[in-house]
Amino acid sequence: MRDIVFTRNSGWIPNVIREDGELKLTLGAGADANHEPRTFTFSISEAHLAVIREDLARHLLLWSAVLPLCDAAGTRGRLDENAAVALLDPILLAAPADVDALFQRIRWDRSRLIAHGADIVLLERGQVCAAMRAATETSNGQRAQEYHADRRRAERGAVLGPLDAAILRYTGQYLHGATVPRRIPDAVDPALLPEVMRVIATAEQACAGMRIGRDPRRGNRATDRRDWDRMETAVEAAVRRAHPGLVEDAVRTVSFLMCSEAAERSRSTPMEDGEEAAGRRADFGGSVGKTALSFTDDKGVEKKWVTDSPRTAAAEFWAFVGDCSAADNEVFTIEDEEMGEGIQLHFYADSIARIMTLRKGDGSSDPKYRVEYSLVDGIGGYRNLVSAFVRGGYASLEQHGPWMSDVAEFERARRRRAAR
After folding, report:
1. pTM over 0.90
2. If you count DSSP H runs as helices and E runs as strands, how many of each does the chain have, helices first?
3. CA 384 from chain center: how many Å?
């Protein structure tokens, strides 16, 4: 038979129960192998119950000291009840000075006390009893998270000023720097918000007109790392120059915000951007331009494009790349069968080959091709080459060289670039 004798408003603070006539403290902590919460119990006396009823601070201190024992039990081990019982008198019945001394010797859960309102300065000084005078039954988990975030920063020498902290709160990165930043003005002290907005305005001016393009080589939602780095550098330089007192964490979170927003704008824009739309007008408005193309990847997947398709050839090709590209699928080809020409993109090597059919094969001879290679400078270089080919074919690529027909010469050029 189990009856609840005493409980507090917060469901996680340990309860006192009477089981088969014996008083016990019971608490939930950790999880079992199936990720279900574990429950631990150990015996207490009427004297301990009296203190638990009347003294919230001592109750919370006991909880903080018992939690490491629960952690030590793991997913299936037993609680060291002797160790738990040994904590009762020194925490619940001893003088404050003795309790403080005990907490210098044992493991205890600091974050639990901070979440329940402990004075952090006194806690850091080892004055745990005094620190708990402001304790509350209600838990504020974010307060404990912020404390640990500040500790992590302090360990690497970063100390936030009021404006630094306000900027991190504005971007939602005060607790976790790896989260995607966003604009949360309500999270900032109204007195500091105008200063935060001046920093944000500096960043916006620094990257005005810049964009982060998409990089279909890494999937349909991937963005160009070079564009990201370029914007990041511009924003951070401007913010440091205009606001020299900011710590690096604040500067980086502002650049992260600008880059993330630019990348999201790119992801929400159709693959057919302004440059490709201009190419489409050239295709349909003049005599140049391809009328039918075939796209293939390294796995044998093929897609056809014709003039009356709803998107430009370049846009259709990059969508095809975004759908098919993978770590083991990095060679893509665009072929104009009618003209006997094409290009082959080697994403793994940042290179491209242009191919011209010099003689078609027949029953008595194999076809003969001219193959020339060139190095490519990132996704921007690939986009330029693809757009040039779909508008003007093999000959239009001449200005985008140099082109090398000797494979050994090309490999030497690749090695020289890799060594830079």
Report:
1. no
2. 16, 10
3. 30
